[in-house]
Amino acid sequence: MEFFTADYWDLAKLTELVGFVSGLLCVWLAARQNVWTFPLALISAGFYVVVFKDALLFADMGLQVMFAVLNFYGWYLWLYKSGERTERPVTHTLRWQWIVLLVLTPLFTFGLGRYLDLTTPADIPYWDAGTTAVSLGAQWLMSRKKLENWLIWLAVDIVYVPIYLHKELYLTAVLYALFIPLAWIGYRDWKKDLQLHQARPEAG
Hints:
Function: Required for nicotinamide riboside transport across the inner membrane.
Helix content: over 70%
Membrane topology: Multi-pass membrane protein
Protein name: Nicotinamide riboside transporter PnuC
Keywords: Cell membrane, Membrane, Transmembrane, Transmembrane helix, Transport
Order of helices and strands: HHHEEHHHH
Number of domains: 1
InterPro entries: NMN_transpt_PnuC (IPR006419)
Structural class: mainly alpha
């Protein structure tokens, strides 16, 4: 098979492969509440900036930059609470956080989609913008260790698979297909942890 030949693995595909491996590991570690998810996520984001630029998925490319920022933010939050080094517990998403997501996600989708449609050669600008908006929301909730981030990831990962197949990013499509069961496992395990510790929703 061509996939297993040396000629198949050019620089672009090797870049996607590194992003694939580091991305898969970072989600697996996130499901296990392991703080090492964050440095691996930074590696994956760096490589996927290049992958998505080449695929003309400009919103996804920018998303990786935002992921890097949110991963530094989440890395700190997971290790520190109220300025003291302590493990942050899993909590439910608060009402105000849902309102922020429900208001900003469609606005961001329309605004970015319109911009990409008018100024770039992107062929699916609104799909690119929409999945980016939802992913940013999910990452924000994950950074704050909110249980429901996994349900949002599960939904958007299902949408990502056909998008990446359309863009012929087959390895990335496989990655996001693997993210779907990992998101469910993450939700199940975080929910058990929340129930075990009888955590209460936080004001943050």
